[in-house]
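Translate structure to sequence.
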């Protein structure tokens, strides 16, 4: 429920003419034997978000406001399909304290939010995986610092590029330049930020990124690369007062992202 409060708080500061609301099922949903908690609801969310994104013009750059990271399945697939149509090479930058690389078999929680990047790479429950999958060599993890065992094992044999929290800043451009992306998708889980600067997330992790460094990194990612899409996820304020305090950094992040849409 806090994630709903968070999304509503952000919506209050967005221009209504440029905002589309995607209703999600209110029921908890069922795992239907997949090992993914709330699978049936997640499948509906994916479908509804994909449909809302299909209504946009090819030149529109959607910024999806979560919700948890699970929204990224439809959001990144949409950006990837657009980049393919444009003949552009798309890179995905995952600003997140967690890599979200579990499968139903490795996940300690069965929460899809911790599996969504792996699902985008093609591994996961039928009906909740990207087809075609992303190329792992076109994925950059930025600010990741909390890995489950299965995720660490997967990363050890994956070409995914990793940038530590200390490396998230204007220097991200130097990491991205040799990778040759024409366009980028920017995933921003707010828990990439340091808890001292931002508290309103369900699973805060110490030693995170300063807001100023994150906005500098977004600017660097968008220097010479088109923004194909973005998302801001995991805003879960414990109270309306706390939501008000956390809105300032969120608006700075949104502003850095939308600078790439102009
Ligand atoms: Mn996270």
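Result:
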């Amino acid at each position: 429920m806090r994630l709903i409060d968070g999304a509503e708080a952000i919506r209050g500061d967005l221009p209504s003419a440029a905002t589309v609301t995607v209703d999600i099922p209110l029921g908890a949903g069922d795992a239907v034997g997949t090992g993914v908690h709330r699978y049936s609801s997640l499948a509906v969310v994916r479908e509804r978000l994909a449909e809302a994104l299909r209504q946009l013009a090819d030149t529109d750059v959607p910024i999806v406001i979560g919700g948890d990271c699970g929204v990224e399945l439809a959001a990144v697939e949409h950006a990837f399909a657009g980049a393919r149509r444009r003949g552009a090479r798309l890179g995905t930058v995952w600003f997140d304290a967690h890599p979200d690389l579990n499968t139903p078999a490795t996940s300690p929680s069965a929460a899809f939010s911790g599996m969504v990047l792996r699902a985008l790479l093609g591994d996961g429950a039928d009906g909740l995986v990207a087809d075609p999958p992303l190329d792992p060599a076109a994925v950059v993890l930025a600010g990741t610092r909390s890995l489950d065992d299965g995720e660490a094992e997967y990363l050890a044999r994956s070409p995914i590029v990793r940038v530590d929290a200390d490396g998230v800043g204007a220097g991200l451009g130097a990491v991205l330049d040799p990778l040759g992306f024409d366009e980028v998708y920017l995933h921003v889980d707010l828990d990439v930020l340091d808890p001292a600067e931002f508290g309103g997330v369900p699973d805060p992790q110490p030693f995170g990124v300063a807001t100023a460094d994150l906005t500098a990194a977004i600017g660097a990612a968008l220097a010479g690369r088109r923004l194909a899409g973005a998302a801001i996820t995991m805003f879960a304020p414990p109270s309306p007062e706390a939501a008000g305090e956390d809105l300032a950094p969120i608006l700075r992040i949104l502003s850095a992202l939308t600078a790439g849409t102009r």
